[in-house]
C-alpha cells in the first residue's frame, strides 16, 4: 500500500474553510449538530455562477457527510430558473429560494458562497474563482458529468479554463473510472481501508480540496496491494461528495 496518511486514520477531522473576509481558516460548523445555512449567491447564468452553485453543493455534501444538518439556499435576481436547471444537470441537489428566507430555527452559522468580486454579505464567505470558457458551444452542450469533473480538478480559489483539452481529459478519466467501478463491483466486497478513508476526509475537510480527493482515487486505482472490492467501496464512498455518478454502469458485463 502506498504511503497513505496512516497517522490520520483515526483522527477526528473537522471541515475547515478559508473565510474570504480574513483569508484565515474557520470551522464550517462550529456546533457539530447545529443547523448550518449554506447560501449560494448568483448573478445569473454563466460558467462562473454555475461553479459557485457547484461549490455550494460540495459544501452541503461535506457538511452532511460530517453529520451536520444543512439548509441550502440560492439567492439572486436574474435567471434563477435557468441556473437551477443547469445545476440539476450538473448533479447539484435542489436549493431553496433564499430571497425571502429568515433565520433558520436553531441556526448555528451561515456560510455564503460567492463569486470573486461579487456580493459581500455579512458572515463567513467562500470565494469562488472565475471560469474562462474556451470550449466550442455553450456549457449546456457539454456532458454535465465531464464538466463537473473538469471543475472539481481545480481548487475553488483558482481560475479554471474550460477548453477541449481539459474536457477531453476529464471525459477519458470519467469513462475509465466508471468502467473500472462496474468491473470491481463483480469482486468480493472489502471495506474502505482506514488510511484511504482518512486521506479522503483529510482532503475534503481541508477547504473542500476536491483535487486532493481525486488524487487519492488515482492512487487507489493503481495500488497493487488493494483488493478490487476495496477499490469499489472507496470510489462509491468518495462519490458521495464528488457526485460524479461513478456507479452508473453497475450491472454491465465484467
UniProtKB/TrEMBL annotation:
The lineage of its organism: Bacteria, Bacillati, Actinomycetota, Actinomycetes, Kitasatosporales. This is Cysteinyl-tRNA synthetase. Gene3D superfamilies: Anticodon-binding domain of a subclass of class I aminoacyl-tRNA synthetases.
Amino acid at each position: 500500500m502506498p504511503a497513505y496518511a496512516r497517522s490520520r486514520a483515526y483522527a477526528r477531522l473537522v471541515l475547515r474553510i478559508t473565510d474570504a473576509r480574513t483569508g484565515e481558516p474557520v470551522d464550517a460548523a462550529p456546533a457539530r449538530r447545529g443547523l448550518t445555512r449554506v447560501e449560494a449567491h448568483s448573478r445569473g447564468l454563466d460558467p462562473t455562477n454555475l461553479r459557485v452553485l457547484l461549490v455550494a453543493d460540495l459544501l452541503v455534501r461535506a457538511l452532511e457527510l460530517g453529520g451536520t444538518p444543512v439548509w441550502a439556499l440560492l439567492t439572486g435576481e436574474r435567471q434563477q430558473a435557468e441556473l437551477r436547471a443547469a445545476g440539476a444537470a450538473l448533479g447539484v441537489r435542489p436549493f431553496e429560494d433564499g430571497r425571502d428566507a429568515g433565520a433558520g430555527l436553531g441556526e448555528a452559522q451561515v456560510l455564503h458562497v460567492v463569486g470573486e468580486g461579487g456580493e459581500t454579505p455579512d458572515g463567513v464567505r467562500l470565494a469562488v474563482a472565475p471560469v474562462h470558457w474556451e470550449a466550442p458551444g455553450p456549457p449546456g452542450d457539454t456532458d454535465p458529468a465531464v464538466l463537473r469533473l473538469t471543475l472539481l480538478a481545480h481548487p475553488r480559489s483558482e481560475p479554471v479554463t474550460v477548453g477541449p483539452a481539459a474536457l477531453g481529459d476529464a471525459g477519458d478519466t470519467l469513462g475509465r473510472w466508471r468502467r473500472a467501478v462496474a468491473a470491481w463491483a463483480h469482486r468480493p466486497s472489502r471495506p474502505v481501508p482506514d488510511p484511504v478513508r482518512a486521506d479522503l476526509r483529510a482532503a475534503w475537510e481541508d477547504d473542500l480540496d476536491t483535487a486532493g480527493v481525486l488524487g487519492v482515487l488515482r492512487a487507489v486505482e493503481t495500488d497493487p496491494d488493494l483488493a478490487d472490492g476495496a477499490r469499489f467501496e472507496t470510489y462509491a464512498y468518495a462519490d458521495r461528495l464528488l457526485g460524479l455518478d461513478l456507479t452508473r454502469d453497475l450491472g454491465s458485463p465484467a
